[in-house]
Amino acid sequence: MKNKVLFIVTAVVVFLLGMLASSIVNRKNEAKYKYVPKVELGENEPRNEEWGKNFPAEYQSYLQTADTSFASMQGGSAMRDVLHEDSRLVVLWAGYGFSKDYSQGRGHYYAIEDIHNTLRTGAPEGKGDGPMPATCWTCKSPDVPRLMNENGIAEFYSGKWADKGAEVVNPIGCADCHDSKTMKLTITRPALVEAFQEMGKDINQATHQEMRSLVCAQCHVEYYFDKKLPGKEGVPYLKFPWKNGMTAEAMEEYYDEIEFSDWTHQLSRAPMLKAQHPGYETYLTGVHADRGVSCADCHMPYKSEGGQKFTDHHIQSPLNNVANACQVCHREDAEKLKLNVYERQRKATENRLKLEDFLVKAHIEAKKAWDLGATEAQMKDILTDIRHAQWRWDYSAAAHGASFHSPVETARVMGGALTIIQEGRLKLARLLAELGHNAPVEMPDISTKEKAQEYIGLDVEKLKSEKEEFKKKLVPKWLEEAKNREADYSSKKVSMVN
Amino acid sequence: MKNKVLFIVTAVVVFLLGMLASSIVNRKNEAKYKYVPKVELGENEPRNEEWGKNFPAEYQSYLQTADTSFASMQGGSAMRDVLHEDSRLVVLWAGYGFSKDYSQGRGHYYAIEDIHNTLRTGAPEGKGDGPMPATCWTCKSPDVPRLMNENGIAEFYSGKWADKGAEVVNPIGCADCHDSKTMKLTITRPALVEAFQEMGKDINQATHQEMRSLVCAQCHVEYYFDKKLPGKEGVPYLKFPWKNGMTAEAMEEYYDEIEFSDWTHQLSRAPMLKAQHPGYETYLTGVHADRGVSCADCHMPYKSEGGQKFTDHHIQSPLNNVANACQVCHREDAEKLKLNVYERQRKATENRLKLEDFLVKAHIEAKKAWDLGATEAQMKDILTDIRHAQWRWDYSAAAHGASFHSPVETARVMGGALTIIQEGRLKLARLLAELGHNAPVEMPDISTKEKAQEYIGLDVEKLKSEKEEFKKKLVPKWLEEAKNREADYSSKKVSMVN
User: Fold this and answer.
1) ipTM score here?
2) Separation between Cα atoms, residue B181 and residue B171, nearest integer Å
3) How far is CA A308 from each of CA A27, A321, B200, rounded to the nearest angstrom?
4) CB distance from B443 to chain A under 8 Å?
5) Which of B414, B419, B430 sits opposite A429 (nearest CB)?
6) ∠ CA(B265), CA(B271), CA(B272), 5° rounding?
7) Longest alpha-carbon distance in chain A
8) Is B496 exposed, middle or buried (0-12, 13-18, 19+ CB in 10 A)?
9) Whole-angstrom distance, CA of residue B86 vs CA of residue A168
10) Annotated binding-site ranges of A for Ca(2+)
C-alpha cells in the first residue's frame, strides 16, 4: 500500500516536472520567436502595420499612442486648444499661421490626421495650391525617408505641401527611427546629420544611448527653412540653426547673422522668429541629460510582457507611467514626484504669463508708434528688442516640457527676455512721448481667443469652412491614391520575395 | 620538532587574539568615555571651551570654523568684500549701513570679532553711543541666551549695541543649539518660538531631524525689529515676518500691512525693505527640504574618528566636503557635483546682475524726478514698485545659497522683481517726460566701490579711522571686563560643584 502511494506521488511529481520543463522550453521559444521575421521588409517600407508583423509587442504598444483617454504629453485632455487657454498667443503670432490655430498635438499615431486638420495648412484645392511648402511634411511620416531615398532630398523639399498629399500618408512610426534590415536605431532625416556636420561633429559616432535621444532630435528641435542654400535657391531647405551652439542666445545670434525671420509681425512690424519645439536643445541643458538619461529612458521605458522585455513604444508623458519612467531611479512616492513636476511647471508659468503680457503690450505700443508717425530709424532698435525677447519667450514656451526638463535654464532664458523687453518698452515709452502720447497705450480686449482673433482681423469661420471642404474633397482623394499605390507596391514586393 | 613549532604558532596566535580583545575593549571604553562629563556645565554656560572639555571631538571640529584657508560658505577667499565685487550694491543700499561695508562673514568662530570690525556697527565711545541697538547681538553669541535668562528678553533687546559689549564675548557655539543638561538640540532664541506661535505651530512638536534645521533657523532667516510691540514700545524687538507665510510675497504682504520699512532710500526716497538672510525660508522651497534633508545633513555631516561617529561641527560649505555631504546620496563624481552647483549659481547670477542694473537705474531715475519737482502723489506708486522689486531681489540674493538650495524658486522670485521694476521704470519714464526730461537719465560712474561710495557721499576713510579708535580703545576694555567676570563665574561654579 505504502509503495503504491509513493509510486503515484512520484508519477504526479514527474508529470508536473515535465509540464514545467515544457513551459520553460516554450518560454525560450517565445523569446527566440521575436527575432524570426514573419515578413521581409522593403528598404523603404513606410507602413507601420507591416513592421508590426515582425514586432508585435513593439507595434501594439505603438498603437496605444492612438489612445487619447489619458493625458497625452502634458497632462489634461487629449487635444487642448492652446489659443483658447491663452489668447495672448493670438496677438504674439499675429500675421503668422499659429494665430489661426494652435492645438496640442496628439500621439504620433495622429501625425497625418492632425496636419490635415489644422487651419495652419490651409485648404488647398489641388497641387500647387495652399500656404505651406512640402517641407512641412518632413516630420510627419516614414513616407518622408522613402520619398527622399526615391527622389532626392532637395526634390522632397520642393513644391507645395499639397503636392505630396497622396505620397505622405503613414503616420510617424517604425521607419522613422529604425533601419529595416538591422533594426538598429538610425537617423533618417538629413537635417540632423547636416546640423552635426556644421558643428564639426559626426553623428555616426553617437553611442546607442545617445541614439535613444537623437532619433527624437530629428524632429523635436528648433529648425527653419533656408531658401538661400547655394545651388538650391528658392527651395525651403530644412535646417537646424546650431552652428554657433544650441542655447537661445547662440541660435538667435545665428539667425541675426543670416538676417532670417519667420515672418513680419502684423502689428509691430518686427522681424520675428518663431521657435518651433527646441525640446532636444533644452533637454541637453538639464540634469537628466547631464546624468546620461535619454529621451527613451523616460518616454519609452522598458516593459515586460509574456517573459519578453522590450521598449514600450507607447510614447507618452512619463507622468502617465511613473512606475516605469521615474521610479526606476527615484525612490519617492509617485504622487510626490508628480507634484514636484507640477511645481516646476507652475513656477515657470507664473513668469511666462507676465512676460507674454509685456510682449503683447510691446506689439500694441509699437503699432501705436507707427500710427503716430514713427520712422523706421526710430523703430529699428525697438523692433530688435521685441524680436529678441519674443524669441527667448518662445524658446522657453515652445520646447514642450522645458520647465521640467531644464527649469533653471528655462528661467534664465525667460529672465533674459524680461530684461530685453523692459529696455524695449522704455524706448517705446520715450518715443511715444516724443510723438505726443505720454500715457499708457490703451489695450484692446483680447480676453478670449475669438476676441483676439477678431482684433487682428482673422476670419476664422471662413478658414474653418474652407478646411471642411478640403477634408471632404481633397483628403479622400489623397488617401485613395495612396491605397492603390501601396497595394501595388505590396504585390510587387511579395513577388520579389517569393 | 613539529609539535614545538605548532606550540609556538599557537602561542603567537593566542597572544595576538589577546591584543585584539584588549583593543576591542579599549574601543568600547573610548566610545563610552564620550558620555562621562569631565566638567559639570552651568545652565547658561556660554564658553565653548568649557563644553569642549566634555565633547572634545565635536569641539575640535567646531574650532576648525576658524580655518579661513579654505573657501568659507561660498567658495573663494575667506573674507570677500562684496561691495568691492559688486559696486551696484552701494547704490542699492544708499542711506543704510550695508552701503558702508558688506563683507562675507567668516566662520562662526569669528562672529564676535567680525561684528566688532564691521563699519556697520560704527565706533561707539562707550555705553549709549553708536548707530546700532543691542538687538544686533542676538545672533552672535551663546552669551545671548545667558543674558536673556538672567535679565529677560525685552531687557536684552533694550539699549544700544555698545551697552552689552562687555557681556557678549563668546562666539556662536555650543549653548546656542544645545541644552547643557540633556545635550539635546534646543531653541534658545525666542524669535523663532514666537514666529511658530504666530503661524499657529508649536515648535516643541518638531522632530529631531527638523531640529537639525531649526537650530540654524534661529538666525539664518529673514527678521526685523518691531518697535511697536504692545507693552514694549520703543524696544527694537526681534521678530520674523512669517505670519502670512515664508514666501517673498507673503513676507512682503506682511511688511506692507504693518507699513514697515528698514530705511528710506537716500536717492529715490523709497521706503525700503532689507532682506537679511532668508536661508531657511528659501531652503524650505527646494528639493533637499522636500526630501527631508536637513541643514546639518550637508553642512555638518557625520564623521568618524578613533571609532567614534559624531556630527562634524566644522560648519562649512558642502563643496569643501563633497564626500561626506553630497556623495552619501549622490553617486556622481565630486567634480561633476560641484560643476552642477556652479552652473545653477552662474545662471541665477546672470539675471540677478541685470536686475541690479535696473534697480540702480530706478533709484537714480527717481532722484532725477524729485530733482525736477515731482510730487509725493506722482511718486507714490513708483516708490512702491522700487520697494517691492528690490525686496524680491534681496530675498533671492541675501539668502546665501538660495541659487543652489532652491534655484527654481529663486528664479521665480527674481522674475517677479523683473516684472515689477519694468512697470515702475515705465511710470518713471512717463513722469520724467512730463517733467520735461524725455531721455535716458544720465548714470553716474559707480564702477568701483570707492566711486559708488563717493557718489552717495559716504566718507569711508573717516568711518575707518573711527573704527580703528574703537578697536584700540573700547574693545580691549570689553574683553578685559568679560575675562574678569568669567574668571569670577568659574571660581564660583567650581566651589558650587565641589
Assistant:
1) 0.89
2) 20
3) 9, 19, 55
4) no
5) B430
6) 70
7) 117
8) exposed
9) 59
10) 222-223, 274, 276
Q: Is the dihedral of CA B396, B400, B403, B407 positive or negative?
A: negative
Residue from B165, B148, B166 nearest B157 by CA: B148
B472 is known to lie in a ligand binding site: no
Q: What is the pLDDT of residues B360-373, one digit of tens each?
A: 999 999 999 999 99
Q: Among residues 96-155 of chain B, which lie with CB inside 8 Å of chain A?
A: none
Model pTM score: 0.91
Q: Are strands A308-311 and B308-311 parallel, antiparallel or unpaired?
A: unpaired
Compute the half-sphere exposure of residue B11: CA atoms within 13 Å on the CB side of its CA. 6
Predicted local confidence at residue B19, as pLDDT: 73
**Residue A409 near residue A285, CB atoms below 8 Å:** yes
**Lookup result for grid cell 570707492:** B450
C-alpha cell at position A114: 492632425
Exposure string for A405-424, b = 16+ CB within 10 A, e = fewer:
bbbbbbbbbbbbbbbbbbbb
Q: Which alpha helices (H) appear in A42-198, and where do they start and end?
A: 48-54, 56-63, 82-85, 88-92, 111-117, 143-151, 153-157, 174-177, 190-198
Measure the CA–CA gap between B182 and B31, rounded to whole angstroms.
18
Query: Is A409 in CB contact (< 8 Å) with chain B?
Result: yes
B426 closest CB neighbour out of A336, A407, A429: A429
C-alpha to C-alpha distance for A168 and A151, rounded to whole angstroms: 14
Taking the C-alpha atoms of A185, A191, A192 and A196 in order, what is their torsion angle to the nearest 10 degrees? 130
CA angle A402, A61, A222 (to 5 degrees): 30
**Confidence class of residue A286 from pLDDT cuts 50, 70 and 90?**
very high
Residue A306's region, left for phi above 0, alpha for psi from -120 to 50, else beta, is: left
Q: Write out the three cell numbers for B308.
A: 567614534
